[in-house]
Amino acid sequence: MPLETLSALALLPLATVFVLLVVRRWTASRAMPVAWVLTVVLALFVWRTEPLAVAAASVHGLVTAVNILTIVFGAILLLYTLRESGAIESIRAGFTNISPDRRVQAIIVAWLFGGLLEGAAGFGTPAAIAAPLLVAIGFPAMAAVLSALIVQSTPVSFGAVGTPLLVGVNAGLAGHPAVDALLDVPLFPDYLDQITLYAGLINSLVGVLMPLIMVAMLTRFFGASRSFRDGLAAWPFALFAGAAFTVPHLVVAAWLGPEFPSLVGGMVGLLLAVTAARRGFLVPKDVFDFEPRDRWQTDWVSGLQDELQALPTGRRMPLWQAWFPYVLVVGLLVLSRTVTPLRDWLQSPALTLEWPGIFGTEIGTSAQPFYLPGFILMVVSLLTFFLHRMHRRPGSYIRAWRQSGRVLFSASLALAFTVPMVQVFIHSGQASPYASMPLLLADGVASLAGPFWPAFAPLIGAMGSFMAGSATISNMMFSLFQFASAEEIGLGTDGAAWVVALQVVGGAAGNMICVHNVVAASATVGLVGREGDLIRKALIPMGYYVLAAGTLGMALIVGGLNPWYGAWLLVVLGLLIIMRFGRAHR
User: Fold this and answer.
1) Is the pLDDT assigned to residue 579 strictly greater than 60?
2) Torsions phi, psi for 366 (to 5 deg)
């Protein structure tokens, strides 16, 4: 079958998801079963994948879905625990003391605290924690989820202590004969450091605008005047917060490698931004707030929102005590990922549930329940029971578990089809005469792009993350393809390093619109069923990220543009995109 035909057929699952969720606005629980059936039919009858391989991929997807659901449950449980203990009231009051401006609050919670969580854990944890926290301090549920999704961009490239590069790119390139031959000698670790530096540079130049785009989206879709202008008015603080994250992000990537850029960027940025906000440095003179609750559109609100903003419990505590559970979450996540003996023990075979060679195929699955962020969130919830003296009111803690279970159930159906569909898509090349669907789709794009491939490289990375829900998996699938494509158009090994870096950046951007990230984040605030509307909105910043990275990549690789001119071009491009899409959504 011709490449063009196979590429078009490989596009069908993505097109189906887009049309049903974004155009037709179906709920994910309706759209994803249809997409799974279509993907299975293509795998069986076009790709001629072995039926057992399709079944094995689906089982692997279900196990992954359970892993994601534990994070959702843990995040909701911790939030309800803090609500029952009275901590949420203290946190809400504390944010008012830092700044009553919702733009500043979104930057601190989503961009910086979320970036810190991404650096420590990844796996959708930032959105699962930041979104309900924003709801708890008074954001509309849809605004909270959108803000949390937008942060699933710049920090993701080096999230989870560098996993997208150390595991994703490394697995895609290391030891491959074509790569080793072109590098002349086994210098792959140095080459990975080079890719890390290039990805950090592109990410920092593109990502510095993300807080500004986030607050512009916030005021455009959820402000009283529905205007980008209210968000853009916060540009001094937004750009300061963007640089407070991206500058240390780049420095650490250049000097220490891929493990800690997002973690350090989040810590440094949080310290600088909170200090600046307290002192009124670069903070807008006008205070932006949402309209009164009775004027909010019904599709902005969730059941969880009403519960969190119900009558106060009357219980208050010191701010440090209210925030301490979140400090524990970050601390335990960092320890479990960076302390080698602890990490090795949590990932040891004795604590791993594994099913290698499902149904006799090459596809295996595993779960490490005590290493998952969801387990740490549940542990912190239990510790909070004692730290906040909830043992005096055990009924309130039981109520938190019961409410969390109810919210979790609503997300289960969508994820039970979303992740298996993704795994069938990825593993369609198993026991098949053809390469897998994502690789053939990328081949089709490459054949159209030709010498302009660097401009399209981030799009392929984003496509991989959109389907797989993971920048790591996207990098695993496409790093070698990106390297080979760069070599084919004569860019050499240095040019190929830039192209793989663009893959890393695009893989991060795709997390903003990944279906199971959207489903999981929506579930944490009780907003299940509105995934299509969220993806429609998140396409705007994702489009900026991919286009800006591709434009900058061409400037840096081809050399036809001065890189600083390319950086200024990003500013103009970002503003044009949000203005254009803003008119389209009126």
Assistant:
1) no
2) -155, 160
